[in-house]
Structures are given as C-alpha cells and as structure tokens.
Amino acid sequence: MSKSKDFTLGLLSGALVGSVIALLYAPDKGSNTRDVLSYRLSSYMDELTHLIDKLSDEKESISEAKRKGDLVVEDARKRAEDLINEAEDLLGSIEKAKENVKESE
User: Fold this and answer.
1) Which of 52, 40, 43, 41 minimizes the C-alpha distance to 8?
2) Which of 7, 27, 70, 105 is the most buried (most CB within 10 A)?
C-alpha cells in the first residue's frame, strides 16, 4: 500500500476508535455527544479532503516535472544525433580530401 493510503486508513481508523471510546465513556447527554462527534467527524473529513487535494497537487507537480524531464532528454538526444551526423560528415569530407591529395601526388 502507498504511504498516502496507509495514512488515510490510519486517520479513519483512529477517528472511528476515538468515536467509539468517546461514546462509551461520555459523561454528557447523548445528543451533546452526537453533536461533538458530528463536528469532529466533519473536521476530520475536511482535513482528509485537504490532504487528498494536496496529494493530488503534488502528483500533478511530479507529472509535470517528469514531462519536462522527458522533453529535456529528447532534446539532448536530438542534439547528440545532430552532432554525430555532423562529425560523420566532417570525417567523410576529411577522407575525400585525403583521397584528393593522394590522387594529385
């Protein structure tokens, strides 16, 4: 499981266990306890939504960085191929020049 799923599962499990313990040991009226639990659950859900949004944004940032990295690699590969072709052309020109010098001797 990924870290984010483990964290989410832990957060939800903790909220559930905390709620059950609060209900069992609550010295307050049931309606008050339910209101408190409802508020806490709502705040946990808001926090969870915020964390999910944050993780989603980070994933998008990573995807964008990977895309840019791939473009840089592709550009470097193209430039290397161009340099190799230029070097081969230069070597071919040198070979022709050598042959011309040998023929004129």
Assistant:
1) 52
2) 7
Flag whether pLDDT at 1 surpasses 80. no
11, two tokens: 């957060």
**CA angle, 37 as apex, 42 and 39 as ends, to 5°?**
35
d(C-alpha 46, C-alpha 49), whole Å: 5
Range 37-56 average pLDDT: 85
User: Residues 53, 24: contact at Cβ < 8 Å?
Assistant: no
- Identity of the residue numbered 9: L
Domain ranges, residue 32: 3-104
Render the burial of 49-65: b for 16+ CB within 10 Å, e for the rest.
Answer: eeeeeeeeeeeeeeeee
Q: Domain tally for the chain?
A: 1
The whole model's pTM is what?
0.43
